[in-house]
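Postdoc handover notes: sequence design on the structure in folder B. Input tokens:
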């Protein structure tokens, strides 16, 4: 893959987020899709879009669903549908320093309950169970990642 190909591939996955009024923002994903992100009213947002933690859960659920369908197709079978219910636990300090880095507000646990509907053999069930464990977003969350942030100021 050339540098140009890699840059084009990266551009198709890049997300650009612009702040809106209040706590809301607009994310443009891959230059094609957009979503408004906001905090719920109880956290001073307007609730006009999903909150950031909800988007993380949605990304994981969508990845699991797509991975399951891909595994089934790769092995020549199908199932009726998959239902993925996700919830999270947040390490929510009630007091402490104002610096978010010192408060460590973060997701401490994600629980995914997956129900796959269909008449499946034991082998197919095993393949799908393994598929859940190979979802790239799940792999990223399980194993962690390195986050690099740069801040620029403009007038």
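Designed sequence:
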């Amino acid at each position: 893959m050339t540098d140009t190909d890699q840059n084009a591939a990266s551009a198709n996955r890049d997300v650009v987020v612009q702040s809106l009024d209040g706590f809301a923002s607009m994310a443009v994903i891959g230059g094609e899709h957009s979503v408004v992100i906001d905090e719920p009213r109880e956290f001073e947002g307007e609730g006009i879009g999903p909150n950031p933690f909800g988007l993380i859960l949605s990304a994981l659920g969508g990845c699991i669903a797509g991975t399951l369908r891909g595994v089934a197709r790769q092995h020549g079978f199908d199932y009726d549908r998959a239902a993925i219910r996700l919830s999270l636990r947040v390490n929510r300090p009630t007091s402490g320093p104002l610096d978010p880095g010192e408060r460590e507000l973060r997701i401490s646990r994600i629980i995914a309950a997956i129900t796959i509907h269909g008449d499946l053999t034991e082998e197919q069930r095993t393949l799908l169970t393994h598929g859940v464990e190979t979802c790239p977003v799940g792999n990223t969350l399980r194993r962690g990642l390195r986050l690099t942030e740069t801040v620029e100021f403009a007038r």
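Context for whoever picks this up: Residues 1-50 form one domain. Don't rerun without checking with the PI first.
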